[in-house]
Design brief:
The protein is 40% helix and 19% strand. It is an alpha/beta fold and 229 residues long. The radius of gyration is 17 Å and the shape is globular.
């Protein structure tokens, strides 16, 4: 049986060490429990053990678990690929949509948020490895989508998110983490309405230490909390 509380305790220690090495405090890093295909009871255990947020990849699964009160006590993030026809079911439900991957999604989210009378917090997803099979805007398009988002009612951009390529080599992965951090810093210097570069979300169970050392302050951890799917 997976000891979720013990796993989170170990993660906190490792996250804390990496944060300190990178010149920050342990509490500066947000731990998101990536709960894809995990039941509500396991999510509740993770929240009780002190994760900072819960992240879901699939809208239908998220809504089913929400009906079971799975997320009580923690902010809910949407971290998977968001289809345009699922926007209406996601806006206002999630505290943060991390995977806004196109100007079209920015527009749809903004319209839905306005209709609800809210402002939706989002992160812009960057395809830092320029992989054709992945969603996200290209790094060189980041400023353009930021400008669009800054002029879109109902949207507030809180930062950037990325899923870098996986090559099995830490040095190669760190290259993309470093590139994302430099992009994040560059965008932070620009002044837009409805934009504050608070969060850089990158790093998962097999890469969160390297991501934090490169500047990530949001890590999305599934297997290291819940065990294998």
């Amino acid at each position: 049986m997976t000891d979720i509380a013990e796993n989170i305790k170990r993660l906190r220690a490792t996250i804390g060490e990496a944060a300190i090495k990178s010149g920050r405090a342990p509490e500066d890093v947000t731990l998101v429990a990536a709960s894809k295909m995990k039941p509500a009871e396991m999510i509740k255990q993770a929240i009780a053990a002190g994760v900072d947020a819960v992240g879901e990849n699939r809208v239908q699964e998220m809504l089913e678990k929400q009906a079971q009160d799975a997320y009580c006590g923690a902010p809910l993030h949407f971290i998977g690929h968001l289809q345009s026809n699922k926007v209406r079911q996601t806006v206002g439900v999630c505290d943060l949509i991390e995977s806004v991957s196109s100007p079209a999604l920015v527009e749809l989210i903004g319209k839905k948020a306005v209709s609800l009378g809210i402002v939706q917090n989002v992160l812009l997803e960057i395809n830092i490895g320029k992989e054709p099979q992945k969603s996200g805007v290209l790094p060189e398009q980041t400023e353009e989508i930021l400008e669009i988002a800054s002029q879109t009612k109902g949207i507030y951009v809180r930062g950037l998110m990325a899923v870098p390529p996986i090559f099995g080599e830490k040095d190669t992965e760190s290259y993309y983490f470093d590139a994302m951090f430099h992009l994040f810093v560059d965008m932070s210097k620009k002044k837009y309405d409805n934009v504050s570069m608070d969060f850089l979300s990158m790093g998962m169970s097999d890469s969160y230490t390297e991501a934090i050392l490169s500047g990530s302050n949001v890590v999305r951890i599934g297997t290291a909390i819940f065990g294998e799917r």
